[in-house]
Amino acid sequence: MKNVIQNLIEESQKFLFKRAKIDDKIGLEAAKFAVCDIPKLSGKFEKSNSPLIRWIKEAAKHGSPETKDLLNALEPALPYLPWKYNYEPREDMPDLGSQMGWGEILGPEAPYHDDHLCFGFTLLGKNTFYPSHLHPATELYVILSGHAIWTLDGHTQIRGPGEFILHPSEHVHSMQTEQEPMLALYTWSGKDVKTLSKYV
Ligand SMILES: [Fe+2]
């Protein structure tokens, strides 16, 4: 499994490095992970028993020519990512934790330990609403497979494979999937990558 994850990290860095050549805010954010030194592995990648596993086969099927290579590297790793969902429970949406979550590879609590940068993948099942939320970290998303109706600061757009989306610190965002699950790469950077995201 270590080789699968190492290959996934390399492909992700290659993917982000291409975008980092463009000198804009997204490029600067992409560069942070693209050129970072990966620490020694200090945790484990074990087969996940998350309810999200039921989505993974379909989740990787809706990519694009740009995301194909990275999806190929990601697919064998998907069952072994440390999938989690750790928001406060919501009475109005009690099943959210079985519909969406993220598997973090690098970060303060991830198998590759880093206190200043996070890198992982977010998965949303079909017809799933990830409600409005915010966090101190600056977040970069790249959609790899599937489409979602994406809202940032009240502005809504349909987003699909190959698109980069930047969420500045403390800016409110939400996503809604419809007929396809969505799989996206994310990074977190900034002064505080430890404070968890919260619903607003
Ligand atoms: Fe976020």
H/E element string? HHHHEHEEEEEEEEEEE
Helix percent band: 10-25%
Specify the biggest β-sheet: 7 strands, mixed
Radius of gyration: 15 Å
- Compute the number of strand runs: 12
CATH class assignment: Mainly Beta
- Within CATH, the superfamily carries the name Jelly Rolls
Find the CATH topology: Jelly Rolls
Residue stretches low in confidence (pLDDT < 50, at least 5 long) are: none
How is the secondary structure organized here?
Layout: H1 2-20, H2 25-34, H3 56-59, H4 68-74, E1 83-84, H5 96-99, E2 100-107, E3 112-113, E4 118-124, E5 129-134, E6 138-145, E7 148-152, E8 155-159, E9 164-167, E10 173-176, E11 182-189, E12 198-199
Parallel strand pairs: 2-3
Antiparallel strand pairs: 1-2, 2-4, 4-11, 5-10, 5-12, 6-9, 6-11, 7-8, 7-10
Helix pairs in contact: 1-2, 1-4
The structure holds fe (ii) ion.
Fe (ii) ion binds at residues 133, 135, 139, 167, 173, 197.
Please characterize this protein's 3D structure:
It is a single chain. With 200 residues, the chain is of the alpha+beta class. The protein has one domain (2-192): Jelly Rolls. It is 22% helix and 30% strand. It contains five helices and twelve strands. The chain has helices at residues 2-20, 25-34, 56-59, 68-74, 96-99; strands at 83-84, 100-107, 112-113, 118-124, 129-134, 138-145, 148-152, 155-159, 164-167, 173-176, 182-189, 198-199. Strands 1, 2, 3, 4, 6, 9 and 11 form a seven-stranded mixed β-sheet that branches. It has a five-stranded antiparallel β-sheet with strand order 8-7-10-5-12, with no helix packed on it. The longest helix has 19 residues, at 2-20. The protein is globular and about 40 Å long. The model has no long low-confidence stretch (mean pLDDT 97). Bound molecules: fe (ii) ion. Fe (ii) ion binds at residues 133, 135, 139, 167, 173, 197.
